[in-house]
Each structure stands twice: as structure tokens, then as C-alpha cells.
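Q: Joint fold for the lines below.
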Amino acid sequence: MDLLNTLVDKGLRRELPSRDEALAVLATSDEDLLDVVAAAGKVRRHWFGRRVKLNYLVNLKSGLCPEDCSYCSQRLGAETGILKYTWLKPDEASKAAAAGLAGGAKRVCLVASGRGPTDRDVDRVSDTIKTIKEQNEGVEVCACLGLLSDGQAERLRGAGADAYNHNLNTSEATYGDITKTHTYADRVDTVQKAHAAGLSACSGLISGMGETDEDLVDVVFALRELDADSVPVNFLIPFEGTPLAKEWNLTPQRCLRILAMVRFVCPDIEVRIAGGRELHLRTLQPLALHLANSIFLGDYLTSEGQAGKADLEMIADAGFEVETTDQVTLPEHRRGGGCGSVCGSQDKADETPADTAPAEAAQPAPQADAPAAPGPRTDLVTVRRRGAGTDVAPNA
Ligand code: SF4
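A: Joint structure:
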């Protein structure tokens, strides 16, 4: 396919595809899917070899958030049954981090719910970062604490943080549809503050919230413009008790096309498969390793992922290797900064075919005897009941 040859050439040269080319990737058919994966896989291997970076989430403070992000199980008033607890102590956080590092992770992501940290919160997290760094040689630490005020990024950097995560989540045009309590501009400002303080900027998206292909392309181009070092690609986990609980819009094939598009637009940037991997890619997870060079090990903030051991087996079976602390993630020309994260817009599960995205509308009608596509796998959404904030051993 001419499109794919062009995109591979551009990816190897670090040249930005056009918006139309990015949209065309999202509009490819299921019949062409393996060609798309193979093409984007060439770009991935050129810049990252067969390495897979493992990241480990430690939820420092869970639930109790005053913000209203409609995709989030921790939002104001959400009845999601998640664990709720206030700040972990530095030793508790370090213990949780150590479990992930022992499981093969090289980066620990310290996350706290809330609009943004107070100066006292920055002190707490700084103590936690120092403790983790003292107790775990070579670990990379990324903080994710919400919107930053002036000077806070510098203080986190001074405490030893390597990166700061704050996702744009979706396009500027649709941001107001998913969150009313802060703006897209607020989010951009925090990513820029992190960058300016010398932190590696980690910022990503959430797909499956009902967004159009144009929204997806807009947010990925915006992330590239912000020069994020890592881009987490989340697939919406439609939590019961949130406004997006019925948004089961993604198929494994759609997830692969999204990851391929992100890879072509961000050829030399860490592309991380984030939340929703097990739920939406399901048995096609190993194919996604040909597109992304980074995943989360074990559980997510408020939901459980597949067993850490299964993550490691999948990586080995697919012919990839876990990146070690003596290997540098980013290609040489990008070294010296940052990190990445998630978000998206609306694609209704009960849309008629005429309402679906062009890529899906272009699919041939299924054969009469074709196996029925599985419905929403609500059974795969499991609230986290182990690890940080509990007495139960973590999944790592
Ligand atoms: S995404 Fe963050 S700010 Fe938004 S509701 Fe969830 S925890 Fe709060």
C-alpha cells in the first residue's frame, strides 16, 4: 500500500505525516490490519529495537477527587466502589514501588488523585521520591499529581523526579464535553511547566470516549507539538458509576489502528499502552507490542490488570525483551528530558452503522456464518483490591 510505504519512510526520517495520512491509518480495513501493524512495527523496531519498557503505578492517594473528569472512577461523587485512601507514607509507597521493580519495571509512576498538589503535598511527594530513590538504585520516578502551580515542577525536579505525567486526554475541541472543572489549556500549561523545569514530559490520550478520528489525530498532533517524551495511549475503562460507563466503543482492531497512528506521528517517542489494554485488545495484546515500546506492569490505579507474570510471558513469547535499567529508552537525539499519559471523546456503543466512524463503516458485511463479535466485556473490569492502600500483596 502506497500509504504505508510513505509512512514508514517518514517514520524512519522522523518526519511528521500529514493529518490526512494519519486519518487514513485510522480508516484502514480489518483486511489490511496486519499490513498496518507490520509497517508501524518497522518504525518501532528502527527506534526502539525489540525492547519493552515496563512502568509500575503506585496510587499514592485514591478517590476523593473534587474534579469531574467523566472517564474517571475517582471523580467527584462517583459510585464506583473503588479503594479510597489518603496519602501513602514514603515507606509504604517505596514498598509498593519495590514490588514493581522486582517484577521488572524500571519506572515508577507516583499518582495522586486531585485537581493539583498543595505545596504541602509537594513536600510529601518529594519525601517519597527521595525514599524510593535511596532504596532502589537506578529507578526512574515519574510524578502525576494533577495541575501544577508555579515553582512546583522545579521542586519535584529538585527532589529527584525524572518525569511528570499529565495527559491531554482528548482534543481541544471536545475537552469541554468530558470535563467541566478545568480546561484543556490548564492541562497544556502543566505539561509546559514540567518541560520547562527539566522534567521529562509524559502526556497522552484516552481513546474510546466517543471521539471522532479527527479528535484522535488532533490530540496526537498536539502531543507531538508539546514535545512529550512519552505518550500513554489509554483505552477507556468504562467504570460502572461514571458517566461513560456505557461507552464500549473499541474493538481490538480499532485499538491496533490507534496505536499504529500514534507510532507514525510519534516515531521516536515512547509510546506506552496504558489503561484498558487487557479489556480492549484482549488476545491481540501481543500484536500491540509491535507498535508500542512501553506498557504498565500489573495493576492500574483503581482496576486490576492481568498478572504481572502473564505480562512478562507475553513479552517473551512475542519475541520482545524487557528493557533494563542500563538501557536508555529514547533514541540518542531525544535524550535529556521527559515522560507521557492518556484521554479521548464520544463513540456510542449503540450507534447505528451510519453513525460509526468511517473505518468501521467501510468494513464488509460479516458473512452469515461468521462468529458473532463479542459484546462488551464488562466482566473484565475488576476494581483493584490489592497492592497500595491494602494489606494484600500487589500484582507485579
Ligand atoms: S482524572 Fe484526576 S483530576 Fe480528573 S477526576 Fe480523576 S483523579 Fe480527579
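Q: Anything notable?
A: The radius of gyration is 19 Å. Confidence is low (pLDDT under 50) at residues 337-368.
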